[in-house]
Write a structure and sequence with these properties.
This protein is mainly alpha-helical. The protein has helices spanning 12-29, 78-84, 99-111, 120-130, 134-149, 169-172; strands spanning 57-61, 64-67. It comes from Mycobacterium branderi.
Length: 242
């Protein structure tokens, strides 16, 4: 970006802040040696069931509707990726699930329109284009500053509130869907190969659905380690017979 769009002035720490909030850096760096997510990362289907999210239909064929979902470590919607797809690692493939590719695409997206991201007010505007939420923007800025300075962020607002509406920006410039939303594969057509793959599910507690590998054995119950003493009134001892 320093060579292709030097006037943008985007920093690596800003991109790191977004990556932190969008996917926790690909679920804590769960990538292969080439930087591609070991299991594809997808956002929730935008079918209107989550508060603040619009309904975005991706395909509708055979009476079945498939809804769009954000994808990859930087959480791009398909329309955004089609416009900003990038090959960040030079392997000849633009893959939204690859850290290098998706990060370069995010940089191109943030720099679109000719902003100067050395100006903090323009940085804020760019982040809000990525996700129109002030708590989200403050968290991104907080983590960007932390990465740049090495000091832990403090007093960041919670990201537990419902995600705000995306308005109509997805029609022209589709964007990531928001901070730390749960990720799943719901909404993919059953014929899609990805629908048959296990996916990373961020934000949801893991549950163990498989039976244990061995039968659970009950330990023998130990005898109580106490003594019962009975106290009662007794008469005089009987006399011995003559």
């Amino acid at each position: 970006m320093a060579a292709s769009e030097p006037s943008c002035g985007i920093s690596w720490s800003l991109l790191a802040g977004i990556g932190r909030i969008e996917s926790g850096h690909a679920n804590g760096g769960a990538t292969d040696a080439h930087g591609t997510a070991i299991r594809p990362i997808y956002g929730p289907a935008l079918d209107g069931t989550l508060p603040g999210n619009e309904v975005i239909v991706q395909t509708s064929a055979g009476g079945q509707t498939s809804y769009a979902r954000a994808m990859g470590p930087m959480q791009f919607l398909p329309g955004t990726w089609a416009r900003y797809a990038s090959d960040g690692d030079g392997d000849g493939v633009a893959d939204p699930q690859n850290l290098y590719d998706s990060t370069l695409a995010a940089a191109r997206y943030l720099c679109s329109g000719g902003p100067d991201l050395r100006d903090q007010s323009q940085v804020l505007s760019a982040i809000l284009r990525y996700n129109n939420s002030m708590p989200y923007a403050r968290n991104v800025l907080g983590w960007a500053e932390a990465y740049a300075t090495g000091a832990a962020p403090v007093e960041l607002p919670p990201l537990t509130e419902p995600a705000p509406p995306l308005a109509d920006m997805h029609l022209e410039n589709p964007q990531g869907i928001g901070p730390n939303l749960p990720l799943n594969i719901h909404g993919l057509p059953s014929t899609d190969p990805l629908a048959q793959m296990p996916l990373i599910d961020i934000g949801q507690p893991a549950t163990e659905s498989r039976p244990p590998l061995w039968p659970r054995q009950s330990l023998p119950r130990e005898a109580p380690s106490c003594t019962v003493i009975c106290i009662e009134s007794r008469g005089q001892a009987p006399k011995q017979p003559p």
